[in-house]
Amino acid sequence: MTTRIQINKTEPDAYKGMFALENYLTQSTLKKSHIHLIKLRASQINQCAFCINMHTKEALKDGESIQRIALLNAWKESNLFTSEEKAILQITEEATLIHVNGVTEDTYQQTIELFGPNYFSQIIMAIATINAWNRIAISTLMPVEP
User: Fold this and answer.
1) DSSP H or E stretch at residue 29
2) How far apart are alpha carbons 52 and 40 in whole angstroms?
């Protein structure tokens, strides 16, 4: 595999900005399980091996089940996810694939009704942050840690 630049070394201030977003998310009211679902699902969609690997390990450490992680790609057909989690996964997919149809009005309304404006805003920030990390990792070929 080709070795590419490491942005954390070439532009450390950019990484500081990304970590500021991560710190914001850890201080937010988002449940850890919701953050894990957002990070894993967006990373699956973006096919970011580095992030899928890292966030799977984090989710397992925080008590997520192997079965739910294995079925995350098929969450719509699974009864292992709550209606709240399914709403989060739906908006994660639509925002990650923003170029397809954007975030639909139905998804927006359902998510606002379930979570309210502040939690909704935190969900969007989590989705935006992991999508940025995915793009950094994929563009620079960050290696998957064993």
Assistant:
1) none
2) 6
